[in-house]
Design goal:
This protein is of the alpha/beta class. Helices cover about 30% and strands about 20% of the residues. Bound molecules: guanosine-5'-diphosphate, magnesium ion (MG) and zinc ion (2 copies).
Length: about 400
């Protein structure tokens, strides 16, 4: 089945299946010619990628629906599909598998990068198998960047400070999303069925909204995402800061105590701006509001708090547990002087749920490194499993 409404997982532009382009293979064609590889100026401009590639081209709408086209220069057939807007190579069977684009947004230092890294590692190694699910980077750049810039620094070197982007291949200010392929084996009426989806994560800082171009990009990413994860750092909120376990590493006050709310307000304005409904309507896309760094607040939680128990999604998203957590976080928000945040969320987001997690399981060392006891994630996959269950990709149980 061909999906009629597509969104490019790299630039988040809306596309139609008959608009998809091709890229020449660059191999020696039957006629003996070889298409030269050069920097693709569109790919450079849109995605900051400067590598040398064979030419890309578009064909008539009818031909674009076929799986193969002949390169207009060398005449050879190619099956490599590209986005007509940003020229990124699209995943195999792009128009035939549903994509789920997830924008992750929050203030600087709220823990987004650490969360995404630990989340994907958990999905690959521990949580995925419980759901008969596998997660792999969908393209070479994602696999390479996820290894070199996310996974290795954190897991092998214990480094928490932001790593510099691969400056050689990427222009400043452009950070392409990480795109993963998620396959889930489900039994449906006694038969095994594999459902595949693409997960695209756009990791950005809410206040990186200085230029008009960056605002436009953010509006598009948020408006065309299927789900949003809003990352909030309780340690940037005055009330929770006071309650943090002594010795916890606290984020700089730079963002101010209203950092969390400011980021949220800004993101919401962008969503209203990009949405087709008027600014008065509530935003309907599933929005997970995720509080990070809970390890610093554990001792303040009552012994019966669901946030102290690990989640247990034995092959199904546990709805009841998730609703208990949602209620608990809402109550905590009041203690943390965050009542305004709850009001704001209720007022603006029709489908939202609160989550609490600790990606690291412990406060970092004085040098801002991973504790020598290692990374022990807590409830890190709950929010994405909720989004996936809202999308119908994983099943849920318990009311
Ligand atoms: N206590 C605690 N601190 C964390 C955790 N995750 C991140 N941090 C701290 O928050 C800082 C910022 O995290 P990062 O993911 O880079 O934030 P980003 O700017 O939102 O991408 C890190 O350098 C750590 O000091 C966590 O799970 N627990
Ligand atoms: Mg970051
Ligand atoms: Zn060619
Ligand atoms: Zn694109």
């Amino acid at each position: 089945v061909i999906q009629l409404r597509l969104v490019c997982p790299y630039c988040y532009e809306r596309l139609r299946p008959w608009q998809l382009g091709y890229r020449c293979t660059g191999r020696r064609s039957r006629s003996g010619t070889v298409c030269p590889s050069e920097t693709d100026t569109v790919l450079l401009e849109r995605m900051g990628r400067a590598e040398a590639l064979p030419p890309s081209f578009t064909v008539s709408p009818l031909r674009a629906l076929l799986r193969e086209a002949a390169c207009p220069v060398c005449g050879d057939g190619t099956r490599h599909r590209v986005c007509p807007r940003c020229h990124s190579e699209l995943p195999l069977h792009f128009a035939r598998i549903p994509s789920r684009l997830i924008a992750v947004i929050g203030a600087r230092d709220s823990g987004k990068t650490v969360y995404i890294t630990v989340l994907l590692r958990e999905l690959k190694q521990r949580v995925g198998p419980c759901f008969n699910a596998s997660v792999v980077g969908s393209d070479e750049l994602t696999r390479q960047r996820f290894g070199a810039e996310y996974e290795r620094p954190l897991y092998d070197e214990g480094v928490l400070a932001a790593v510099t982007r691969s400056a050689g291949t990427m222009a400043a200010g452009v950070v392409p999303p990480l795109v993963f392929r998620l396959s889930v084996d489900r039994r449906h009426m006694g038969r095994a069925r594999e459902s595949r989806s693409l997960l695209s994560f756009f990791d950005t800082a809410g206040e990186d909204l200085t230029s008009q171009r960056s605002v436009d990009t953010h509006v598009r990413y948020l408006a065309n995402a299927d789900g949003v994860i809003v990352v909030l750092d309780p340690l940037q909120m005055a009330g929770a800061r006071r309650l943090a376990t002594p010795g916890s590493r606290l984020p700089a006050r730079g963002a101010g105590v209203d950092g969390a709310l400011n980021a949220l307000v800004r993101v919401t304005e962008l969503l209203h701006k990009g949405g087709r409904a008027g600014a008065a309507a509530r935003i309907r896309k599933p929005t997970a509001v995720v509080f990070t760094k809970l390890d610093a607040l554990w001792p303040q939680l009552g012994p019966g708090s669901p946030l102290r128990q690990p989640s247990n999604h034995a092959g199904e998203f546990d709805i009841e547990d998730s609703l208990r957590v949602d209620e608990e976080v809402r109550a905590l928000l009041n203690e943390w002087d965050g009542a305004e945040i709850d009001q704001f969320i209720r007022h603006n987001y029709a489908r939202h749920r609160y989550f609490g997690l600790s990606a690291l399981g412990e406060t970092p060392t004085a040098e801002n490194r991973v504790s020598p006891r290692g990374i022990r994630p807590h409830r890190v996959a709950d929010a994405i499993l909720w989004l996936l269950s809202e999308f119908g990709v994983v099943s849920s149980a318990g009311r």
